Amino acid sequence: MTSPLDSLKTCTDLNNLRSTLHALCAPLGTVAELEIFLAEQAGQHQAMCFWRMQTDKEEARIMQEWGVGRFGGELVAVVDLEPVAHSTPLNSAT
Q1: Contacts from 49-55 at CB under 8 Å and sequence distance 24+?
Q2: What is the pLDDT, as a whole number, of residue 71?
Q3: pTM > 0.85
């Protein structure tokens, strides 16, 4: 079973990650807060996404439909990112 968050795997920079997550959430509500942290674990690039929606109802729906949980009161998802084929660093904000 695929998750809507699977489309984040091909994002190549932080701006693209942010805009894609906002677009994924749009049919379910409005993102009120979003923080994305990048990490590398055993050579695997990951994005750790923490966000809040405008209402608890929107958050409950995302948790149910997408299978994500909470950490510290925020929705959280860890996404394994596909390797970038070119030299643009993922943490570049351009």
Answers
A1: 49/5, 49/8, 49/17, 49/21, 49/75, 49/76, 49/77, 49/78, 49/79, 50/74, 50/75, 50/76, 51/21, 51/25, 51/75, 53/25, 53/28, 53/29, 54/29, 54/30, 55/29
A2: 93
A3: no
Is 51 in contact with 34 (CB distance < 8 Å)? Answer: yes
Joined together, the tokens standing for residue 8 give: 């984040």
3-state SS assignment for residue 82: coil
- Segment 56-81, tens digit of pLDDT: 999 999 999 999 999 999 999 998 88
Q: How far is CA 36 from CA 1, 57, in A?
A: 24, 22
Residue-level length of the chain: 94
Look up residue 34 and give its two tokens: 């979003």
C-alpha 14: how far from chain center? 10
Residue 25 has pLDDT above 60, yes or no: yes
